[in-house]
Amino acid sequence: MYIIILIITCIILLPLYMLFLAFQINVKEHSLRIEEMKDGEQFRVFFISDIHRRKIPDKMINSLLGRVDIVIIGGDLTEKGVPLERTENNILQLCRLGKISYVYGNNDREVGEPQLNSILEKNRVCILNNKSIVLNSSKSIIRLIGINDGFNGRVNIYDAFQDVLEEEIIIFVSHAPAFFNNAKKLARPHLLLAGHLHGGQIRFGPFGIYENGAFREKENSAELISNGFGTTGVPLRLGARSECHIITLFG
After folding, report:
1. DSSP string of 169-209, one letter each residue
2. 196-205 residue pLDDT tens
3. How far apart are CA 240 and CA 1, in angstroms?
């Protein structure tokens, strides 16, 4: 009898716990030393991907004010059924932290590309569709490169890398990490950023449909695959924590 009660209790409580995990706020901090950066120089990137249906809360933004130099959205800012007003409110929240750059994700165009572009352009968000920009930095030249979504958009990675110079520090962002290897064939990115996989979203120990997100340092570079901030399908998580990131590049 007690075993049956325990099983029923677990069946009831587990979904509630998974719902709680899906709406946690976890800001992970990483650091990466880059040989080409000047001694004592720092550049701080805030990376968030896969927001989907979530609202970005004041509490999180207030805790990050003054702590980042640029905001990068790694796609899936929204999805079908999300009111455009909510999407714009999320953009306005992130604008409080600094200038925003963005790459499309596979769900973003579901709300209508012209409507989404209108919101982004209105709030001076830089859309990185197969192109690069030079970021404001006190000393080093930092180039941010982004590509279009490979599911519903046209990727031209050669166009994205055409202006790269050898002496530049390169940050590469794509919605899906599948394009990391393509980027590394064209240049030597120092930081590669992606989301999309949600860490599998629901994992049982080491088992999930995708690997858990991670920040992996390599020789003078690092790759970050984020579990993402929101969820898709069902608003539940287990074993793959909701997250966004501050990455500090320093010399």
Report:
1. EEEEE-SSGGGHHHHHHHS--SEEEE-SSGGGSB-BTTB-S
2. 999 999 998 8
3. 33
